[in-house]
UniProtKB/TrEMBL annotation:
It comes from the Bacteria. It comes from Streptomyces javensis. Residues 190-278 form the HTH araC/xylS-type domain. This is Helix-turn-helix domain-containing protein. InterPro entries: AraC_XylS_family_regulators, Homeodomain-like_sf, HTH_AraC. Keywords: DNA-binding, Transcription, Transcription regulation. Signal peptide: none annotated.
């Protein structure tokens, strides 16, 4: 008997009143699927997961994720990172995964995104970041019978946090404009051009940008370009088309096909072809809906 997978994307209601702070929210459920080791890929967005089943088990390497030092948490917060996180996928799991704009971290999480970036720990216990209220919300999500009700509950909780504004320190306007500029250009452009746009020296821009997000502007730009390329590939596979990687590379601003492959290897640990072979089932089932474009 083959297993089943379900992916449900939240409607606009969840993000209503949040001003783009939550970029996407996806409910997922699988049962009877062979256990696997999933690669949680870097992206230009923070990850927030509420498990509706057992704890999310993972680590920075396959060995850590499958060993005694694995992280285990019912609520997971992931910062911006430059390599894949490895998640153990059991035969049965369920949860809600959100992509959170990094410049909304102070408002929704109570700390800057840069505080979540660590070479040692790619994910953090959400209970440590969000407190007991988040654990209470998780219990309520587990009690809800429909995805619509779960999304509504989660949206109300996030709006409460946004209204409270737990970190009163605003994001510097130059950092906000720099992020918007990079997003508009999908990671293209130069650091010099970006620095001129926000009227800071490249060195000063890099310093304040990294303090806020945990990444340098160049690293953020590369992530945005990779995200654009990954989304392009995923859309092709979801439409049952073989992606033309050379065309994807040219379309997304890479020098050539080899340049795209190098970025894929850094961010996924494998080639584009190998990653697609691993993720084809999830994509065809409606996964990878975190396409924030």
């Amino acid at each position: 008997m083959s297993g089943s997978q379900e992916f449900v994307r939240a409607g606009a209601g969840l993000g209503h009143g949040l001003g783009g702070m939550v970029v996407s929210a996806v409910g997922y459920r699988s049962q009877g699927v062979p256990p696997a080791l999933h690669r949680g890929l870097p992206s230009p967005y923070l990850t927030l997961i509420f498990s509706l089943d057992g704890p999310v088990v993972g680590g920075g390497t396959p060995e850590q994720a499958q060993g005694p030092d694995a992280s285990r948490s019912e609520i997971v917060v992931g910062g911006l990172h430059q390599r894949p996180a490895y998640i153990v996928q059991p035969g049965r799991e369920a949860g809600v995964q959100l992509a959170v704009h990094p410049l909304a971290a102070r408002t929704l999480l109570g700390l800057p995104a840069g505080a979540l970036t660590s070479d040692d720990d790619l994910v953090t216990s959400g209970a440590d970041v969000l407190g007991k209220r988040a654990a209470d919300i998780r219990e309520r999500l587990c009690e809800r019978q429909s995805w619509e009700d779960r999304f509504a509950t989660l949206g109300a909780y996030l709006r409460e946090r946004a209204a409270e504004g737990e970190d009163g320190t605003p994001v510097r306007s130059e950092v906000g404009e720099a992020w918007a500029w990079l997003a508009r250009h999908r990671g293209a452009g130069t650091l010099t051009g970006l620095a001129e746009h926000v009227s800071l020296s490249p060195r000063r821009l890099t310093s304040v940008f990294q303090a806020e997000t945990g990444l340098s502007p160049k690293q953020a730009a590369r992530l945005m370009r990779f995200q654009h390329a990954r989304n392009t590939v995923v859309r092709a596979v979801a439409a049952d088309r073989a992606p033309d990687l050379a065309r994807v590379a040219a379309h997304c601003g890479y020098f050539d096909h080899s340049h795209l492959v190098r970025d894929f290897r850094q961010y996924t640990g494998v080639s584009p072809t190998a990653w697609l072979a691993e993720e084809c089932r999830n994509i065809q089932a409606g996964g990878h809906l975190y396409g924030e474009e």
